[in-house]
Amino acid sequence: MLALSLETAKTVAVIVAATFVASGALSAVLIKNIIGKVLGAGLLAVIAVGAWSQRSNVENCVDAAQVTAEQIAAGSDASPVKCTFFGIEVDVPAP
């Protein structure tokens, strides 16, 4: 049977407690870094998807503006189309 003295048990307890505190602090730093990277990547993905969808909306709007410009040139009373990118109006050059 293994027996420990009181001083050995106190020393082991201090070492175990210090080890847990150090590993807890290290884990907190690692988790913070990982979560920061995941949130950053997620934010970039959301921006990329938003820009991609806005890009396709602008392409569709430009196509509609060209059709409307042709109709106006043919004498129609159609009003010009206004294109936006993230809510900002974009000038569409005449074809």
Q: What features would you describe in this structure?
A:
The chain has 95 residues and is mainly α. 72% of the residues lie in helices and 6% in strands. Strands 1-2 form a two-stranded antiparallel ribbon.
In short:
It is built from one helix and two strands; from the N terminus they run H-E-E. By secondary structure, it is mainly alpha-helical.
Task: Compile the SSE list and pairings.
Blueprint: H1 6-73, E1 83-85, E2 88-90
Antiparallel strand pairs: 1-2
Shape summary: rod-shaped
Order of helices and strands: HEE
Q: Using DSSP, what is the number of strands?
A: 2
Which class do the helix and strand fractions yield?
Answer: mainly alpha
| Number of H/I helices | 1
Q: What is the helical fraction, as a range of percent?
A: over 70%
**Gyration radius, in Å:** 32 Å
Q: What about the largest sheet?
A: 2 strands, antiparallel
How far is the N terminus from the C terminus?
94 Å
Q: Which ranges are low-confidence, i.e. pLDDT below 50, for 5 or more consecutive residues?
A: none
On the 0 to 100 scale, the average pLDDT is: 86
Largest sheet: spatial strand order: 1-2
Proportion of beta-strand residues: 5-15%
